[in-house]
Amino acid sequence: MRASPLTPSQWKDKLEAVNKIDEGSNMKYILLDVRNGYEWDIGHFHGAHRPDVDCFRSTSFGLSQSEVIASDPLASVDKEKTDILMYCTGGIRCDVYSSILRQRGFKNLYTLKGGVSHYLKEEGPVEWVGNLFVFDSRLSLPPSVFKPEAMTEASKTQEVSNNISFARCFICGSQLSELRHRNCANLDCNLLFLCCTGCMNDLRGCCCLKCTSATRVRPLLPGHQRYKKWHYYRDMQLQSR
Hints:
InterPro entries: Rhodanese-like_dom, Rhodanese-like_dom_sf, Rhodanese_C, TrhO. With 241 residues, this protein is of the alpha/beta class. It has eight helices and ten strands.
């Protein structure tokens, strides 16, 4: 049995009610982000939790205490009395993981019907901070794209959401002024990450010092340019031999 789906309106009401709960209240909840790390990095619901891992499928959500890793937000949760509110971009991953959590004993499971993209179209950026990661060449979109009438005229003209104080450089941890992913210049790494200008220049577009000494490092791209498909650089190497 999967989780109970909540419409965007019901989800908004649930989040607003949750944010009004006093610390001494008996009502318990966990707002769970089941997306990948690079999706979380540029935007998520206020108050959400996500484990410190590269990919959600590698976490140990809901396992017994002896199997739990330190970053598991469900480590000491009361499975009978805690509401688990799960969300992802389109809703599919929530269906998968809610089934897993149900099998592991969690009783009160809820998912956002249609995912974040549907929520932003219906309700606007209520309780949402940052942008939404999308799986195409754009990589991220501000909430104004989904429901322009919910945004002020000033925010419509900006490429990213105003509320990005949570965003940090993957390398040095400094606060970022814009939400733009880039791929590691090391072709064999290709990690998608957020990076400040200083680290980008110091490491020549790589995500770490080790990658700068790799055998297949692409040139640092200026500004907001993106790398071409990987076979373009493979063919360049073959031609140069």
